[in-house]
Design brief:
489 residues; alpha+beta; OB fold (Dihydrolipoamide Acetyltransferase, E2P); 3 domains; 6-stranded mixed beta sheet; 5-stranded mixed barrel; 17 strands; globular
């Protein structure tokens, strides 16, 4: 346990150990280097594709986290004469470099996802690919699977289509800077300020996204606000914890990806192609959600109703913003985790309750998620009128394994968040923090400090406290190895 002095705990080693503990293989298998070398030797050659479109002249751009290097998608939009906005999403064609059943592909199939631990990214694919040859990096020619659709005034996406194209990312941008600019809270990012056409392009994309988010909320998409954090690193040591804020740029990308994933799902449905869908089932614990709302003075229908639930959430966000992240988190837990499932032709998908969409697959992040690479292969086979590369049994097995490993990835990420917080706060033992009580059970009383945003246990003075109480707590001790943070009231 820390006694209040800065500590040097090896967070990267802890992350590596946590990966192995939860079933991952963070080190690439024998044979990876030779396969990687063969791919790199031919990376300048564009694979021959019959009928591929050349869309490199479009003013494509990407928006992602400040630190992202694995760029999976780029965007472009145009105003149509009928008032609709046509949106194009270019998704990195990872499959044209990473072929099915190779050593690199088999490793990705086992890992299923890149894991972001805060101190180190454990990429599903070697970084030479996911951050290099298969990433849609700025000013590099790439092959992409393009997904397009048109957005009307009501936010409905129609005229969905998919095809392969040559693309070129003209501007790699970041959420925070673009979001602040779109909201009028900050200056235009340098690349946007220097290019009036790019500024107009982003404003048009934002207009399309704002239509879409409004349309989905009308149909019952849930406006949730769970708090996410990231460590501020200096010389491989975590020195502070920063809160990640949602903004208009993150909303833009979220809306574009939801619509693109819907286009792919409906394309497979129309073509009678079996696929993997991403779903969140209708909540089995709806009765507990109803009870939770009743305790806050709202009556929800007896049967699950996402529109009624979202109306309640919106009202609570306005009424009690301090506790809204905790209400959001409780709602997410009661809805249950997302999962991957096989959907065969002519079968009805369970849909995604939280997004209020019926047709949803994962297709827009093939550098980071194996289901997206599988979806890409299914789509490319359909476009080429070739036999499908996976049987229904193959897809079902992949879906089950991806669900398992995604759950394991969340466990690794949660454990590392706790360890990072314990390291950052070690030098602040004895200091006091405003906090909210987030849980009271047989194990103890738990609080969340507001700045920085960390969770811990009350080991002294917690008697009589209940969920929602605002308190001032003093930091007593931290234990980075176990991820423990202890407070006294």
């Amino acid at each position: 346990m820390s006694n209040g002095h800065p500590i040097h705990f090896n967070l990267v080693a802890a992350a590596h150990a946590a990966m192995i503990e939860h079933g991952f293989q963070p080190d690439y298998p024998a044979g990876t280097d030779s396969e990687l070398a063969a791919i790199q030797a031919h990376h300048a050659e564009m694979p021959a594709v019959a009928g591929i479109q050349d869309l490199r002249k479009l003013l494509w751009s990407s928006i992602d986290n400040d630190t992202s290097r694995d760029l999976d998608q780029i965007e472009w939009a145009e105003q149509l004469p009928d008032g609709r906005i046509r949106v194009l999403i270019g998704v990195a064609d990872v499959d044209c470099r990473v072929h099915q059943d190779t050593i690199i592909d088999s490793h990705a199939k086992g890992e299923t996802t890149s894991v972001y631990t805060g101190v180190k990214v454990f990429p599903m694919l070697p970084s030479e690919l996911s951050e290099g040859i298969t990433s849609l990096n700025e000013n590099e020619d790439r092959i992409a699977v393009v997904i397009e659709y048109a957005v009307d005034q009501a936010g409905t996406a129609s005229d969905g289509n998919a095809y392969r194209a040559l693309v070129r990312n003209r501007a790699q941008l970041a959420y925070n800077a673009v979001g602040a600019w779109l909201e009028g809270k900050g200056p235009a990012p340098a690349k946007v300020a220097a290019n009036a056409d790019l500024a107009s392009q982003l404003k048009l994309q934002d207009a399309a996204a704002q239509r879409m988010v409004g349309g989905r909320f009308q149909h019952g998409a849930l406006d949730l606000e769970t708090i996410e954090t990231r460590p501020v690193m200096l010389a491989e040591q975590a020195i502070e914890i920063a809160r990640l804020e949602k903004n208009r740029a993150t909303s833009l990308i979220e809306e574009f990806m939801v619509a693109a994933n819907g286009v792919i799902a409906r394309t497979f449905e129309a073509a009678n192609v079996a696929s993997i869908r991403r779903i969140v089932r209708t909540p089995k614990r709806w009765d507990r959600i109803v009870e939770m709302a009743a305790n806050l003075g709202t009556t929800l229908p007896a049967e699950p109703d996402s529109k009624a639930l979202n109306d309640f959430l919106v009202a609570q966000k306005q009424k009690d913003p301090d506790h809204f992240p905790d209400l959001s988190l409780a709602t997410v837990k009661l809805m249950g985790p997302g999962e991957y499932v096989l959907v065969k032709p002519n079968e009805v998908s369970p849909g995604h309750f939280g997004l209020a969409v019926q047709d949803y697959t994962h297709s827009t992040a093939p550098n980071r998620r194996f289901p997206d690479m599988v979806t890409q292969r299914l789509m490319k086979a359909w476009l080429a009128k070739a036999p499908q590369p996976y049987s229904a049994d193959d897809l079902n097995a992949i879906a089950v394994h991806c669900t398992l490993m995604e759950d394991n990835a969340r466990k690794v990420e949660r454990e590392m968040q706790k360890r990072i917080a314990a390291v950052v706060l070690a030098k602040r033992i004895g200091q006091s923090f405003p906090a909210i009580v987030t849980g009271v059970n047989k194990y103890g009383t738990f609080v969340r400090t507001l700045d920085p945003h960390v969770d811990g246990m009350v080991v002294s003075g917690g008697k009589g406290l209940d969920v929602g109480d605002k308190v001032t707590v003093k930091l007593v001790s931290t234990d980075p190895q176990r991820g423990f943070i202890d407070f006294a009231v």
